[in-house]
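Components:
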Amino acid sequence: MAIKTFDRGIHPSYHKELTSGGRIERAALPKLVIIPLQQHAGAPCELLVKKGDLVQEGQKIADVKAFVSAPIHASISGKVKDIDLADHPGGSRAMAITIEGDGLMRDWVAGAVQTDISAISADALRDIIREAGIVGMGGAAFPTSVKLSPPKGKTIDTVILNGCECEPFLTADHRIMVEEAGAVIWGLRALMKAVGAGAGLIGIEENKPDAIDALDKAVGSSNDIRLVILETKYPQGAEKMLIAAAMGRKVPTGKLPLDVGVVVNNVGTAVAIYEAVNLKKPLIERVVTISGNGVTAPKNLRVRVGTTFEEVIGQCGGLKTSEGDMEVLNGGPMMGITQSTLTVPVIKGTSGITVLTARQIKPVAYDPCIKCSSCVEVCPMGLMPYRLGDYGRAHRTDDLKAWDALACIECGCCSYVCPAKRPLLHWIRVGKLKIREEAAKAAAKAAKA
Amino acid sequence: MEDKATTQGSATKLVVSSSPHFLTDDSIPKIMHTVVMALIPAVVASVYFFGFRALLLVAVCIGTSLVTEYAFQKYRNKPIKIYDGSAIITGLLLALTLPANFSIFGAILGSFFAVGVGKQLFGGLGFNIFNPALLGRAFLMATYPVFMTTWVSPRTVEAAVDAVSTATPLAMMKFEHKIAPLYDLFIGNTAGSLGETSVIAILIGGLYLRYKGYINWKLPLGYLGTIAVFSGIFWLMDPAKYPSPLFHLFAGGAMLGAWFMVTDMVTSPVTPIGQWIFVIVAGILAVVIRLWGGLPEGVMYSILFMNAFVPLLNKHTRPRVFGAGASARG
Ligand code: SF4
Ligand code: SF4
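Structure:
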């Protein structure tokens, strides 16, 4: 099969071998979980329980009427111990429900029957997905039911499952594809049904031959689903890059995948849908890669939402403190969010916990730009990062707009390659923030007038 | 912002930064030192063909460049970065463009001008418009016109008394219509600047840089290709009057310019289209000056001339933004 890819991008060192060979293990049942009310892009949930309530594993404990949202469920059974502000792996503090477990575990598999997809309507599927609290599990955590409800007049002909997992260190999706290929394919067919798409594609990088084999077997001879083998390159899994590589369709600037007839979902999301429909199990646990040179025994764990990083890392032998200073990330090293404490919980969008050691932590000092052109050569969006960086740093919003700063997908390729170690993406983010602030101010002014 | 890791009681600290959190190993010093390594074959060839004097000139130019860099950084209270390798490259490249019997004082002056005016006055590495070594050479051409064009045959400099003054292959081609044997040009056994004569030595260094990934192939190949094609047109029209493309490629500063000056990161464009325009126009200019200009050699001026347009090229040759012009479907 011809290997497909997108233009530009980078080849970082992947370090996937730390965890790609071992089976997914089940994490020990936590005694305590901290479940934030905001785990998705969109409106935060409102409480359905109060302090002191007893809750069952899988019971809905928070929800909200807003369209762009997803409800939240108790990941263990026990008693609501606290409802208060808590550290959030997104980088701030947010309201969270703390549940103290009673040690009981529910058996979701007993009595489960595999449903025939043709027997469920698209509407019913969307309802199940929304009620199960399913969000994109690749990291962005956009509510899946919303993605599956295209506006009137838009037709979706293809569902792409994203099995690229192009972030260094992370192998959760890889292991899911190897170990749960059947559920992945079932979930993909459910997604196709929900949006009325006739075709399904699974985009997967060539560095996962065992996953390719497993999926190939699971698809069998049916021709509604096709595997697309992609070059191992970052950010192959970015939606726009994936659609361009797999189908040759380019999402116009400022538009969404559905504008070219496509929705993209993560392979983990497909499995969550399989479990929601067949096991009646809401999204209360997920596979997390715990890796990096700062972790004693890196592995993939099936973790309850709300388990603290401290506990999860502890189950992987703890931190290698002999390595000196560490950087702990919610996610991978390219797009992950840095943590200042280990008391933060795993949430629905936590695809990995990566711990970098002192040797890998990037320097703070940077040099002047030597116009080496590397950042321009790697930017998958075709931007000129060195320029955007300077404009962003100087808050030059007009220049930023003229040079398409808003098209930046924040992949970080530019900062990665810069030999002068210039924090380009950081400055571009600052610039984008300034543009939004100005727009908000202008809107407020217009509203007053 | 830092915090104690809560798992252990040890002194491991959690470091906080914005994404991406890990970076390539490449750095400015690493790139610059690799370029210095890549120039070593040319230095060895220059010592082989022109003797100890070549080594002396190289040492003087590098030394002056480092001292100048240090003095300017110190005086302007900037961080001292003389170890980043860039001043070494400027000194080295300047030395390699000098005739073997060039005055030592002139070499000092040229290096001072190259680093002081060509680089530091613009604001230091990254801010200069022109290639500092070429600017230094242009300065010496203006101040030492005779010295800069008095060439000696290779392997004769050591016996300084009876050093044979001679013309470079390009000058011979231009003024006497004599063509040097290609083999001598390839090996470097001709009169000329220290490091420009040996094609093979420069190629070894250039290919090493390409292998290391620090050269964009477009630049040297585009420049040399343009020289070959453009000079080839005239050669085909009248081979008796015009020298062959191979002669153009092997003679004078074409090879050194293509692999080490056109490729100077700071002074070449960052966009693919800008890079093409840069090398094609520079290549044509070099041939035009060689064939019809008042000077035998056009490589230096062709590159310096195009350096001036780099900011403009960078501004007006933006790559196409992903998805620009793509259309949505219903
Ligand atoms: S400018 Fe934005 S899109 Fe381009 S490489 Fe940098 S982070 Fe990625
Ligand atoms: S990668 Fe860094 S040094 Fe190179 S052009 Fe971009 S900003 Fe400048």
